[in-house]
Amino acid sequence: MNEIYPTTQSQKALTVFQLYEGSGEWFDLSKKPIERFTFTFGNAEKEKDGYFITDGCTLCCACGEVCPQGCIDFTSASAVIRQENCLHCGSCMEVCPQKAVIRR
Ligand code: SF4
Ligand code: SF4
Hints:
Bound molecules: iron/sulfur cluster
Radius of gyration: 21 Å
Structural class: alpha+beta
Strand content: 15-25%
Number of helices: 3
């Protein structure tokens, strides 16, 4: 840092800090569907947030027609959102006639 901020005056711009705990997400928007991953460090707990489909799902597939990522799987008893590809746009929740999509 002495090379980048060589004078006492310029070193006043520096702030030293340490990140000891936290969480975040990174996205790869260059892929279709997009990819998203969460990470934590320190003692931060991984939060399970996003959109999820409950047992009220009747497999009508209305959500699949509006999902911009095509990331809803209809091969199980209830539809399942592939979290690693979900944009969190909420379109599926808006159209579900059963109110089976929830946001955490
Ligand atoms: S719109 Fe609702 S009921 Fe229909 S498949 Fe999607 S989650 Fe299930
Ligand atoms: S929140 Fe958006 S991207 Fe995610 S499953 Fe629903 S419609 Fe698809």
